[in-house]
Amino acid sequence: MDFDAAARRAKELHAEIDRHDHLYYVEDSPVISDTAYDALRQELERIEELFPVLATPDSPTMRVGAEPRSSLPGVDHLMPMLSLDSTTEPEAALEFDARLRKILEKETIQYTAEPKFDGLSVELVFRDGVLASASTRGNGTTGEDVTPNLRTIKSVPLRLRGRGLPALVSIRGETLMTLAGFRELNRRMTERGEGVFANPRNAAAGSLRQLDSRITASRPLAFYAYEIMTAEGAGLPASHSEELALLGGWGFLVDAHWQKCPGIGEAIRFHSNLAEARDSLPFEIDGVVIQVDSRRDRAAAGMKTRSPRWALALKFQPRREITTVEEIAVQVGRTGKLTPVALLRPVDVGGVTVSRATLHNAGEVARKDIRRGDMVRIERAGDVIPAVVERVPSGPAGEKRREKPFSMPSTCPVCGSAVEEEGANHYCTGGISCPMQLKRGMEHFASRDALDIEGLGEKNVELLVDHGLISDFADLFRLTRENLLGLERFADKSAENLLAAIEASKRKPLDKFIFALGIRNVGEHVARILAAKFGSIDRLAAATMDELTAVRDIGPEVAGSVSGFFGEERNMRVIREMSALGVVPAPPDSPAGPRPFEGRTFVFTGTLEKLTRAEAKRIVQDLGGGVSSSVGKNTGCVVAGADPGSKYDKAVKLGLDILTEDEFLRLAGRK
């Protein structure tokens, strides 16, 4: 194919692919199969590989994303992106209308009312009909350049449609994530053990502000246009309703849920109706924008410093406590435990937006009879992940339409290994061959309370595992400077620092090493007991069930976990390899001096000023005592910090010894 023929065919493919993108993402009416669409794209990609000059900025191939950028540069908006005055009270909307009628000297004003999207406001600039730049709202005057990321959103036209286009035009709209896309993204992230987004707005903002536009391209984003901010070389429409029609004609996705309102009463009724229908919309909205339809009237009404006088956001009252289970996903933890998690329609609970809640285990799901699509009541305490309290019945008709009961998968959703049921819980049998268990296990292995390997947090663990540099704990000690410098997050200094931290971890105390292995049911306290009793990893690995259960505070369940772990040949292989690589945990020191807390149980309540809870717990354990989270008759002592809670009241009622933090430190010989 010569250049002229390639150029003609590329132009044809541009138009054809753009047409199908518009039909699919804007009009929701595709006319060809995915396979046929992919064939068109692949043909265009081949042409652009042969003739790179044909890969123009408006080419559909620009939507796949580019190499990561180091930062998001700033960009000045062509026109200020103003905010809106807002209220949740219809009475305030009546006052807004009264002020405008007085300014405009009119008996009634025609408004438009439309959904107030709960997404991220963006300005798009088109020069000669071609997308030139895109930026977030920022401070209203200057935003962040997200042009490469916006190009990846299929509902954004890379070239405007029609004739008589402005030479320069600035479009304002909203980037958002549909609820279906949000559920699917959070499901995937939950199953991978990643932190999920609290709500679709956060998901959209986080996706759009990525330095790596390929990540944006993988996210289910949409762009809805709603305002022409400025235009050169063409007149602006006389009204907002005409403006919306023009935006649709240019190829933008324009939401259909808007209405002309001959007076403020009709606009308030529109708000009320939309509040009832909001749960049926494909995206989140948080209210209604009421604005004067006529541009001439808008100009007469004028502006305030940060907002127009001619528009008002009449917001909805926030949802609270009761919401819908959009999906039940299964998360794989560090030990392979599978936990069902309810992915919720975002709801405000005590000022915090909640979008997921734990369902604990399959038995709990069955007992509460929670299914996809159910309305549920949730609760949240402190920073703990919210929990589903109960299902809220939806009436006879709703009960008949309920989904099938939830059941745990028979294979791991991450690695496909068989799932085994142990008591109330289900576990993936893949061990560290399961990428999720390996990643979470490696994070635990390197955590502060384990081997304390600084620089080996979640992102670097993901990087090392995903690049195939780590497949078990022993591989960590095989890493070289050359391995690390080949990764995007590492330079000379960061590579040296990580390797130094790994080297220093080879002689950490035995109890730290035992805890780092991530043996089920073996926390810090049990690890210290095992280290003190057996003195080396080899002796612990050789211990029988009888020898383990003979140790104080080690019951059959813990003993079974320890015996089972060291009974696995692959675990022993990794331990032998670590030993050959110089990992030799330091044996525990013999207790020096008296152990005054021997046999005593301590409970801490309130805020400690000089110690963290972990430090206080270690002091008690070093001196032979134990720490409990609840107060009972057998509690030896309660240490009360600032603002103690119900544990303090119960201790007073039981007549227990109560110490201040300073008194505790003196008793422990630390002051």
Offer a concise description of the structure.
38% of the residues lie in helices and 20% in strands.
* Uncertain regions spanning at least 5 consecutive residues: none
What is the chains' assembly state? single chain
**What shape does the CA trace take?**
globular
Distance between the termini: 85 Å
Report the portion of residues in β strands: 15-25%
Q: Summarize the biggest pleated sheet.
A: 7 strands, antiparallel
Query: Mean pLDDT, as a whole number?
Result: 87
Helicity, in percent? Answer: 25-40%
Going by helix content, strand content and strand pairing, the class is alpha+beta
Strand element count? 22
Number of helices: 26
CA-based gyration radius? 31 Å
Q: Key terms for this structure?
A:
671 residues; seven-stranded antiparallel beta sheet; 26 helices; 22 strands
Mind explaining what this structure looks like?
With 671 residues, the protein is α+β, with helices and mostly antiparallel strands. It is built from 26 helices and 22 strands. Strands 12, 13, 14, 15, 16, 17 and 18 form a seven-stranded antiparallel sheet that branches. Strands 2-11-10-3-9 form a five-stranded mixed sheet. A hairpin with a 2-residue loop joins β4 and β5 (130-136). α1 (3-26) packs antiparallel against α2 (34-50) and α18 (510-516) crosses α19 (524-534). The longest helix has 24 residues, at 3-26. The chain is globular, with a radius of gyration of 31 Å. The N and C termini lie far apart (85 Å).
Give the helices and strands, then pairings.
Blueprint: H1 3-26, H2 34-50, E1 74-76, E2 86-87, H3 90-104, E3 111-117, E4 120-127, E5 130-136, E6 142-144, H4 147-150, E7 168-177, H5 179-191, H6 200-208, H7 213-217, E8 221-232, H8 240-249, E9 259-261, H9 264-277, E10 285-292, H10 295-301, E11 311-315, E12 322-332, E13 337-349, E14 352-358, H11 362-368, E15 375-379, E16 387-392, H12 395-400, E17 419-422, E18 425-428, H13 435-446, H14 458-466, H15 473-476, H16 481-485, H17 492-504, H18 510-516, H19 524-534, H20 537-542, H21 545-549, H22 556-567, H23 569-580, E19 601-605, H24 613-622, E20 626-628, E21 637-640, H25 646-654, E22 658-659, H26 661-667
Parallel strand pairs: 2-11, 19-20, 19-21, 21-22
Antiparallel strand pairs: 1-6, 3-9, 3-10, 4-5, 4-7, 7-8, 10-11, 12-13, 12-15, 13-14, 13-18, 15-16, 17-18
